[in-house]
Amino acid sequence: MNGLIEKANVLIEALPYIRTFFGRTFVIKYGGNAMIDDELKKSVMLDLILLKYVGVDPVLVHGGGPAINEMMGKLGKKPTFVSGLRVTDEETMEIAEMVLAGKVNKEIVSLISKYGGKAVGLSGKDGNMIIARKKVVVGEDNQEIDLGHVGEVEKINPQVIRILSKEGFIPVISSIGVGYQGESYNINADSVAGELAIALEAAKLILLTDVEGIYEHPDDPKTLISALHIEQARKLVASGNISAGMIPKVEACIRAVENGVARTHIIDGRTKHSMLLEIFTDKGIGTMVVA
Amino acid sequence: MNGLIEKANVLIEALPYIRTFFGRTFVIKYGGNAMIDDELKKSVMLDLILLKYVGVDPVLVHGGGPAINEMMGKLGKKPTFVSGLRVTDEETMEIAEMVLAGKVNKEIVSLISKYGGKAVGLSGKDGNMIIARKKVVVGEDNQEIDLGHVGEVEKINPQVIRILSKEGFIPVISSIGVGYQGESYNINADSVAGELAIALEAAKLILLTDVEGIYEHPDDPKTLISALHIEQARKLVASGNISAGMIPKVEACIRAVENGVARTHIIDGRTKHSMLLEIFTDKGIGTMVVA
Amino acid sequence: MNGLIEKANVLIEALPYIRTFFGRTFVIKYGGNAMIDDELKKSVMLDLILLKYVGVDPVLVHGGGPAINEMMGKLGKKPTFVSGLRVTDEETMEIAEMVLAGKVNKEIVSLISKYGGKAVGLSGKDGNMIIARKKVVVGEDNQEIDLGHVGEVEKINPQVIRILSKEGFIPVISSIGVGYQGESYNINADSVAGELAIALEAAKLILLTDVEGIYEHPDDPKTLISALHIEQARKLVASGNISAGMIPKVEACIRAVENGVARTHIIDGRTKHSMLLEIFTDKGIGTMVVA
Amino acid sequence: MNGLIEKANVLIEALPYIRTFFGRTFVIKYGGNAMIDDELKKSVMLDLILLKYVGVDPVLVHGGGPAINEMMGKLGKKPTFVSGLRVTDEETMEIAEMVLAGKVNKEIVSLISKYGGKAVGLSGKDGNMIIARKKVVVGEDNQEIDLGHVGEVEKINPQVIRILSKEGFIPVISSIGVGYQGESYNINADSVAGELAIALEAAKLILLTDVEGIYEHPDDPKTLISALHIEQARKLVASGNISAGMIPKVEACIRAVENGVARTHIIDGRTKHSMLLEIFTDKGIGTMVVA
Amino acid sequence: MNGLIEKANVLIEALPYIRTFFGRTFVIKYGGNAMIDDELKKSVMLDLILLKYVGVDPVLVHGGGPAINEMMGKLGKKPTFVSGLRVTDEETMEIAEMVLAGKVNKEIVSLISKYGGKAVGLSGKDGNMIIARKKVVVGEDNQEIDLGHVGEVEKINPQVIRILSKEGFIPVISSIGVGYQGESYNINADSVAGELAIALEAAKLILLTDVEGIYEHPDDPKTLISALHIEQARKLVASGNISAGMIPKVEACIRAVENGVARTHIIDGRTKHSMLLEIFTDKGIGTMVVA
Amino acid sequence: MNGLIEKANVLIEALPYIRTFFGRTFVIKYGGNAMIDDELKKSVMLDLILLKYVGVDPVLVHGGGPAINEMMGKLGKKPTFVSGLRVTDEETMEIAEMVLAGKVNKEIVSLISKYGGKAVGLSGKDGNMIIARKKVVVGEDNQEIDLGHVGEVEKINPQVIRILSKEGFIPVISSIGVGYQGESYNINADSVAGELAIALEAAKLILLTDVEGIYEHPDDPKTLISALHIEQARKLVASGNISAGMIPKVEACIRAVENGVARTHIIDGRTKHSMLLEIFTDKGIGTMVVA
Known about the structure:
The structure is a homohexamer of 291-residue chains. With 291 residues, the first copy, chain A, is an alpha/beta fold. The first copy, chain A, has one domain: Acetylglutamate kinase-like (Carbamate kinase, 3-Layer(aba) Sandwich), CATH 3.40.1160.10. Chain A has 9 helices and 16 strands. The first copy, chain A, has an 8-stranded mixed beta sheet, with helices on both faces. Chain A has a two-stranded antiparallel sheet with strand order 3-4. In chain A, strands 6-9 form a two-stranded antiparallel sheet. In chain A, helix 7 packs antiparallel against helix 8. The mean pLDDT of chain A is 93.
């Protein structure tokens, strides 16, 4: 019976958080190990479904670099990266879009359904949701580098997401954008998540990664930062004292915070139910970037 | 971190139950120690609020015998009971109504508010909600005994409850009925809860008591019955092998089950969060009466 | 037939008033003889129901001093007043709340129902409707006097009233407030009515009393004032030339007028159907306080 | 003051009727002196507006024989009647339609507006509301007589009326029907009113005439019948002991009663506010035809 | 098959216009030959119905001078005009109203119905839609000339039109206004159409006439002006180099454009489907007056 | 000008069809040349958008055999077919899903957007829309042949389509189904279109092919059948006198007709705007299968 009462206490501990976030939108960037390991996948899906039932409107954004690489490999193409950005020629774009919107996205939708939720998968083309432009990348020689279909968000049309969320579905979104001429763009998923959080006036932006959070010293796990003001976050990025993969995440958080998203979180997707822990327990986990 | 994951697992364990009961009504009879002990009171209120947030519409029904007795004492009146029913002359009725609708009811409303919920207190007179008739009680000599304002439910008009539930309030209801001439009736709260569960097409009727549930042998706690079919329940009542106070509870369950309430529960209000435990854990507690 | 035509003319005389007040809210403070005499009670209830049917949303506010005194007497407590305010210790507060919310309120609800209307009784605790604070009372020696649970309105949350009015019910409200800690407050009912009129953007505030209205000279019935501008009303209060019981009424009217309630009325509740006469006849009765 | 209380009593006497008819539709056939005398006109308009404000949805149907005759006279045409039906050649139809829909109808609309109501005038062509067919009239020689555009109701499309009533307007309807080829038909207005009452599931059909009601002996005003069962009404029509002009009225009532209209009334339009008197006083006036 | 493909191309050519005007209101002034010739009538009705089905809300305004003249003739009255305005004494007003609202209006309603649409005919009295005042006309001697019931628009209450349009009906409106005393006014239909276009925030005002459009030189058809800025339009009116009948049309266009109606058109009603051609083809026809 | 009038006539010819199909759903199977040729693609997209604007709710279903074959080729896999069905092992299924949902689907969505419409692409997994089971295929030796992930429709959940259609989007659906365990199924797109038409209570099912329709004698274009009753259609299938690729189309039509879809059409997607021609012209094209 004591065990049972412990359980009840956990539910009760969640109550103030449920109350706070009732009717609000959370944008979650899904990636890393949490997209590979079966147990973690299940844990993320259950977390999303629970959020939906307690009155939160979760919106899931995903990329899928490894799956794109794998398919490129099968097709005899070698992935190339410049400054961490995938060089995306026409053929690579086509592969990326197929893999993200046709494979990864639908697998997630199917998993959510399997665990009892209702989901609809979308790419940025659906409902003209993510309007994108070519990303201008400048090399060390100050010359523009042509990375092909690498894009950045120009404008978000959130209507489809709103409709589907309101009708009880969890929208699952591939980080593909569409240009004004109908051309496809490959966009960083952290950045897409951040822009969606802004457009949807989300209460939280949550980025799942494969580290515990942001470290003061990248190599020292004991220096995990719990809360980071955007001022400090900007300095950290400028300092170079931060891993390359973390930079777009921190930047997405900064932009979201600057544009009205009250709380942004970089959390460890390798921990089961890390989302729930962040949201519904008194302590929270990972690094929070706030104003 | 392990502790945290345990917590998350508890939330996840609740998910299938949340899904099942989303949008459904639960009628809860509140009484006994859970109405006296401050910790238990708090625990019941938090449970109700949590239920409301995860999409259930809880409706609370309460009596208040001890508080009525106390006020009668202060006013120099001595409570009298026949077959467990309070002899309710005009003056007693007035005291009962004042105590239930003016004191007990408003304290509960105030507590729910204090712990973060929104409640509205009602008696059966409000919105003509509980239409009652005089209860006919026959003594051992086959003569009718006049117990005054002791009533039973004639008809439920659930409109007010529906409106308030829909608008986010938890209705809190005193077990007072009103006759066609506007006269007040004192009605057993278990019975009121059962009739409301039927009228509201509730998914669950939950009766909080001061025992663990129904025992096969009233004096032997090891004989607690987990699930009881209404056939067996009827036999148990007929056998006399059941405590007097338990009879109206079991009868309320039987009537509710017969009229479409799928699950009815007699649970131990002395256990903190007993409601949550019954609803959201795989094991459940107390005695369930089902078809 | 002539008698019949007279009747029709009366209905027609009411038409322009019906048109003017269609869809508007009236807050009515009920008290005095109109709460004691059976014929007057019936007359008030019928007036309320008629108002509801012709498209007005009446909201009834009541106190109940005499009933509180009577119950205190039965319980061996002696009512004490300072500057017309009831000294309200914990026990008195409990009695007041029981009597108002549990007895007086439900009797009114039951009467409205008996005469064909639909009512719901509420106290300021329901839906956290009347948030109150302790009233600071300063004695002649400039020292603060502790009157216990005597309160004044801090804030009105009119949501419950709006919902119930819209669904066809007449809200009946006890002048009990609730503090931020859940504690009860005894508030002057005239003042509660005034604040509700402001919060509900009422078209009229009507205070039923046991005099014809405000007299220029309190002892001379021939000096009844038909219409009083708030400027004059303020002077009258300041002059001391006004009865003690009338002061909170006039002040409620002044505050209401200052906060957007176009018309406020102090009328004679001893006259049958005085409300209707004020509202639906060309002449009106009692004293009107206006900007 | 006594006079005032009398007035209030009249309003209160109306209350049970207001309650009964709240939200219901009344179809009123307007004609006779009530359409000619200015005071009577005003009285009818005020009655309609009052009905609208107390929650009834009045629908007014009018003919206009005298106005048609007058216009025909000006145009040098002589009205001819066969069995009380106007012989309606093409030209007469055009005149009738112009007079009814363009003059009489708009005058009524304008009057309602003048006295404070909102009205919209319609003919049976608007929204294809009154679909009509040619009325077959057989002479004494058993030969069909061609009366031209004299029609009878084939089908009612009440959509426009419902929309306008719901939005607060009083629909005013000319008794013009339209055939499947778009041709116009002149239909008896009593009959149109009856069919509209059926189609709108009206609570009452009220026919205003220039007599007090139906007499047992047409020439003896002392034999006015207060209530008539349709059985008796049929016999009365068959007996021939009834005036020619009264026959279509009685038949409209019989058909309406047979098709679900609970109460139908033939009342004296020469009495001011006769509608109100019928509806809102305990005694009622004229003759009621019921099942 | 080539013919078929041509047909499809025509539909497709219309698509961008359909998209642009979806959900917008068009006010169309109907008059001239298009109201006389049967083929043209049919063509206008079909155009209206098609507009309605492709998502436009057409509102038709009509006058009917020739029909009024004809009826005046039959009644032995001679039409008189001053500065192009009909001298409208009481009797003439009555005739005009009957003819417009009772004959012309209902014929149009009936035609729309015949060709498969749903229409409701209204005059400016219905729903108090067109509030008018007496038009002040000053003669050459600077003296006011009394033209009787000639009016101009004071205010538009578009509620009835909005309701009927929303419910799928095409409102058909006679150019009759109503004064504050309920008196009728005869108003120029071009002017009524312009004011309605402003009040309804119409996307287009279309005036059907019996000429191709506005000519630079009234006598030279080769000088048809396709698009006219309101500046030029004002000069053209001032120059006197424009026909008398065209002046109120141009003025209606100018006022509409000045008050937010983006496009106003004067087109040739003698051409079949001229409305469709103007709206749905790339070239357009007639003269467009724009800002 | 004559040319213009011709154009208007074409629009008017479409009117009765627009009226008939207003507010109805059409399910269109898109395939063949119309999915390859750029001009035909554009023509199909414009047709869909026009349908949407004139009040029809088009739902597009597509397969994509050639694109799947091409990707398989690139990946070094050889497509195999048994009885016209693609042998679909795990890897082929993954390729098919990627190509259909990630490439073909999003290209269509993007094209609709480019030509001015609003579209959302879905696979049968989204919203659990197309529940599928493994298709049992029996070989000539009466042995079951395992074709892997070849499926058939078990159940349609049309909620997502309904929501998106209502909100102004054109749903574009890949013929991928999902099993109760979340596994993917490759389903014939004609069959998916037919089942969707049934579930959506569509007014029309339109299958675009690369032939003119059904021929009485497959090799003789002069024997094109305009209308085919399902009886005859069944005989034609049984006769073997029909091309293999046409069989699933005819069967989809038969099943749709049997289940309430009034009209089903097999039309030539090689003709520009063939959909419009079928729908909006008096003659129609292709073969219609009806009850």
